[in-house]
Write a structure and sequence with these properties.
CATH superfamily of chain B: MetI-like
Strand order of the largest sheet of chain A: 2-1-3-12-6
Strand content of chain A: 5-15%
Number of helices of chain A: 20
Subcellular location (chain A): Periplasm
Order of helices and strands of chain B: HHHHHHHHHHHHH
Radius of gyration of chain A: 24 Å
CATH class of the largest domain in chain A: Alpha Beta
Main location (chain A): periplasm
Protein name (chain A): ABC transporter substrate-binding protein
Structural class of chain B: mainly alpha
Number of domains of chain B: 1
Helix content of chain A: 40-55%
CATH architecture of the largest domain in chain A: 3-Layer(aba) Sandwich
Family (chain A): Belongs to the bacterial solute-binding protein 1 family.
InterPro entries (chain A): Bact_solute-bd_prot1, SBP
CATH topology of the largest domain in chain A: D-Maltodextrin-Binding Protein, domain 2
Distance between the termini of chain A: 78 Å
CATH superfamily of the largest domain in chain A: Periplasmic binding protein-like II
CATH architecture of chain B: Orthogonal Bundle
Number of domains of chain A: 2
Largest interface: A-B, 32 and 27 residues
Oligomer: heterodimer
Strand content of chain B: under 5%
Chain lengths: ~425, ~290
């Protein structure tokens, strides 16, 4: 009996040590990301399928908040040497890290990876600064215009109501506000920063020239676009001021069925579809003077401080995340754009295109989608823009005055950071 | 020898703790405040007082200082006045008093982030509970978090609500320490309720008030979470208090030198205020009846 017990204990101990040995043999890749709820669930599935295919690599994923939070935490973590190995970085803000040699130059990895031929040109381009690859695209997006079909119908608007120009959008928003405002329904959501950038582009302007990094915040067409956006809140009162001081609140109210029109990233399609079901209608962004939308989203970069074997493991994961299988699953679950040419043909993507009307709107806008500036000072500009927008939208400052000051400050910051 | 060293061994852990978590960060901030750094570069060039000059020349700093002082001036008397009034009502050891003390104290132990998120919805203009009630009785929909004046008042209300329980508990302890015979003597002399409060309670509760005043002013100058979650310093800087500005400069604009300079200014300001309070009010505080 005692002998049997000893054998059992010995066998258990051996099994335990063997398990520990196996676990130690796996390379762990710490990965910080910005996806929660619907998008977070989709990412976790991709990680699970990656780990099943690569048992020698363990991805320790951590949700660290939105893009701003992530940049702040990463920056604070660098001197404390508490950084991840791989990190999601928004495409206009990774320049800060690339230019300070914090990110690994992925050019050699990318050159040897067949993935490079599978990516769409727009997706490949967003990972490049000064000819070097610093991030591999993962979640690419453009803004789109979301409509609540039920609210439209109750306001007497058809699903085909023109929403091409600023005037068209304002007219529809006013109709909703007039007819349903008493029920606590707003005509339109105050545009978030990504949508604001898109509306400036559709007014034939830019915030910063992506090729020359010239600051265009005080260009007449930029000012005009901001004036129009602000008028939705302060003059026409078709957008709630709640969305001006808190963008998340604006999004939440659309998903709660309290807003008729809302402009946001195609990456929020999954969550909105879940919330509104068949009442969700997706339309392209307005083409006020021209058709032009910004490409947004993020890519995955690898920290230069990580050991070489961890960087190799991290790249294996990064490459997998952009593979046709992972990208098709990501597209179908979230609405983010396909970045891999082969993903659209896979059954999961085909099914999504057939069964989820509107998921292709962002894809169709790709011919007029453009990359944005990613110089170091863009991070500063985007952080400061929130205050400027609030002051204009809440009627505290005139758009031309506020944007001229803002442009001057941004030029100074650009000089200070050497861009 | 060992006998002489023994007391030092006992205080050593605390001294090390204070040194590591208080003095080292203060000295590090002082050092960083005269350098230019963004967390990323290995070099931290010495820039002298440039960061301080930039701060003193910026409108944001002066706006922030003004807003913080206004917040302290409005919120501290409100907090202490309300706490003293409620404490004087809850001083008796009855079941209802105990229950109410617990209810008032609850926000002090609740997560500040949760409180801020809930109140940001409560005070939302179009979808908030407060405006739903006001609208029902025909009082319109004030833009609580978008109007520069109202937004500051909302923060004062929420902060007072959160801190009130702690102040009440301290005041109750202070009120219970006042000898009953003084009240009996005042009653014999025919003292009216208000006069007893003014001549007996108020002077004898002064040490507690002085303590709470110091704590409340420091907290008012360091308020951050409620501001950052509810308004992020907006609308357009109307609630951008010093610590929120410090966070913005340091962790959103990544100018660690300027952020540290602001931290040093805040430190000097708080030390100066504490000394001033000790000079003006400290001499009027009596610790014995």
């Amino acid at each position: 009996m005692i002998r049997k017990l000893h054998s059992t204990i010995a066998a258990s101990a051996f099994a335990l040590f063997a398990a520990v040995g196996t676990a130690e043999a796996a390379t762990t890749v710490k990965f910080w990301h910005t996806f929660s709820k619907t998008n977070g669930e989709a990412l976790n599935k991709i990680i699970a399928s990656f780990e099943a295919a690569h048992p020698d690599i363990h991805v320790e994923a951590e949700f660290v908040g939105n893009y701003n939070d992530l940049v702040a935490k990463l920056q604070a973590g660098i001197p404390a040497r508490r950084t991840p190995d791989a990190v999601i970085l928004e495409i206009t803000r990774y320049g800060l890290f690339a230019n300070n040699n914090v990110l690994t130059d992925l050019t050699p990895y990318f050159a040897a990876d067949p993935l490079k031929d599978d990516l769409y040109d727009y997706a490949r381009e967003i990972g490049v600064i000064n000819g070097k690859n610093y991030v591999v695209p993962f979640n690419s997006s453009t803004p789109v215009l979301y409509v609540n079909k039920d609210i439209f119908a109750r306001a007497g608007l058809s699903a085909d109501t023109p929403l091409k120009t600023f005037d068209d959008v304002l007219k529809a928003a006013k109709t909703i506000q007039d007819k349903l405002g008493a029920e606590g329904i707003s005509g339109i959501g105050a545009p978030g920063q990504f949508a604001r950038w898109g509306l400036v582009m559709s007014n034939d302007s830019e915030l910063i020239d992506p090729k020359t990094n010239k600051i265009l915040l005080d260009k007449p067409n930029t000012i005009e676009a901001y004036q129009w956006m602000a008028s939705l809140v302060s003059q026409h009162k078709v957008a709630s001021p709640d969305g001006v001081t808190d963008e998340d609140k604006g999004n939440a109210m659309f998903m709660a069925g309290k807003v008729g029109i809302d402009m946001d990233s195609t990456g929020s399609y999954g969550g909105r579809k879940k919330a509104l079901g068949d009442n969700l209608l997706v339309r392209p962004m307005p083409c006020n003077k021209v058709c032009s939308v910004p490409i947004g989203g993020a890519g995955i970069g690898i920290m230069a401080s990580s050991p070489k074997e961890v960087q190799d493991a991290a790249y294996t994961f990064v490459s997998y995340a952009a593979s046709p299988e992972a990208n098709a699953a990501w597209f179908a679950a979230t609405g983010y754009l396909p970045i891999n040419k082969k993903s659209a043909a896979l059954p999961v993507a085909v099914k999504a295109l057939e069964s989820q009307p509107g998921i292709d709107v962002a894809i169709n806008s790709l011919p007029y989608a453009h990359g944005r500036a990613r110089a170091t000072f863009v991070t500063w500009m985007r952080t400061t823009e929130y205050k400027v927008w609030q002051s204009i939208a809440l009627g505290q400052r005139k758009a031309d005055e506020a944007l001229k000051d803002f442009a001057e400050q941004t030029r100074k910051e650009s000089q200070r950071t050497g861009n | 020898m060992l006998r002489k060293l023994t007391p030092y061994f006992f205080v050593a852990p605390l001294m090390i703790f204070i040194a590591v978590f208080t003095y080292v960060p203060i000295l590090t901030s002082l050092n960083l405040s005269v350098r230019q750094w963004n967390f990323l570069t290995p070099d931290m060039p010495f820039v002298g007082l440039h960061n301080y000059e930039e701060l003193f020349a910026s409108a944001e700093f002066w706006n922030s200082l003004k807003v913080t002082v206004l917040f302290a001036v409005l919120s501290v008397p409100l907090r202490l006045g309300a706490a003293l009034f409620i404490a004087s009502r809850l001083i008796r050891e009855t079941l209802s008093s105990r229950l109410l003390r617990g209810a008032f104290f609850l926000p002090s132990v609740t997560s500040t982030v949760s409180i801020a998120v809930v109140f940001s919805w409560v005070f939302a203009t179009d979808y908030g509970m407060v405006n739903a009630i006001l609208h029902l009785v025909g009082l319109g929909r004030p833009q609580w978090l978008q109007d520069p004046y109202l937004a500051l008042w909302v923060l004062i209300i929420v902060n007072t609500w959160r801190q009130l329980g702690y102040d009440i508990v301290i005041y109750i302890a202070g009120l219970q320490a006042i000898p009953q015979e003084l009240y009996d003597a005042a009653a014999v002399d025919g003292g009216q309720r208000f006069h007893v409060f003014r001549r007996v309670t108020l002077p004898l509760v002064m040490p507690t008030t002085y303590f709470l005043l110091i704590i409340a002013v420091i907290e008012a100058f360091q308020v951050f979470t409620i501001v950052n979650v509810m308004t992020r310093g907006g609308p357009a800087g109307a609630t951008d208090m010093l610590v929120n500005l410090l966070y913005e400069i340091g962790f959103e604009l990544f100018d660690i030198g300027r952020g540290s300079a602001l931290a040093v200014i805040l430190f000097v300001l708080l030390v100066g205020l504490a000394l001033l309070k000790s000079r003006i009010i400290g001499s009027k505080v009596h610790y014995e009846a």
